[in-house]
Specification:
The structure is a single chain. By secondary structure, this protein is an alpha+beta fold. The chain has a single domain, classed as 3-layer Sandwich (Rieske Iron-sulfur Protein), CATH 2.102.10.10. Helices cover 13% and strands 25% of the residues. It is built from 3 helices and 10 strands; from the N terminus they run αββαββββββββα. The chain has a 4-stranded antiparallel β-sheet. The chain has a 3-stranded antiparallel β-sheet with strand order 1-10-9.
Length: 171
């Protein structure tokens, strides 16, 4: 089975490893405020989005893409409070009223379009780590890692605490 066939099968539990510049899934795979699409990314492919990284340590991280108000958004699948996956069932990221993304473990809630934490135990100013994606020709692609994002003091402390300080940007 090709990787194209695998990402088209919604009932398949396989989470494909998506490299920067490659297709995540067809656009119609994610519907507005419905089930998200889970995939894996390499830290080396997203390093430019989240800061510098020691490329000798290349691990895979869970990620997801959802649609909200007609726009696709992708994030690392980890709570800003504690680095745990968010979805309460595979691909289920939204609250019952479909207005926010919720962490199944901590009840932290995030705005779907920005990843900003708006309630729960996550520290003030916390955000999910947003991945740069592009939607074109009926497909969603993971962009090349060429943009950096603002790293909050809280995220910096969490990364250091969990031994992930190599993910911090070198300014």
């Amino acid at each position: 089975m090709s990787s194209t066939d695998q990402t088209n099968a919604p009932e398949d539990d396989f989470e494909p490893l998506i490299q920067a510049g490659h297709r995540i899934c067809p656009s119609d795979r994610i519907q507005d405020q419905e089930e998200g699409f889970r995939f894996m990314v390499r830290t080396s492919d997203i390093a430019g989005m989240v800061g510098s990284i020691d490329h000798r340590v290349d691990e895979t991280l869970p990620a997801f893409v959802i649609r909200f108000d007609g726009q696709a958004h992708a994030y690392l699948n980890r709570c800003a409070h504690v680095a745990m996956e968010l979805d309460w069932q595979p691909g289920q990221f939204f609250t019952n009223d479909k207005t926010t993304i919720i962490c199944a473990s901590h009840d932290a809630q995030y705005l779907p379009d920005t990843g900003e934490c708006i309630s729960g135990p996550c520290p003030h100013g916390s955000r999910l780590i947003k991945l740069q994606i592009e939607e074109k020709a009926g497909e969603i692609f993971l962009c090349q890692a060429n943009k950096k994002v603002f790293i909050t003091d809280t995220l910096q402390k969490v990364l250091i605490k969990h031994g992930r300080d190599s993910l911090l940007p070198n300014f």
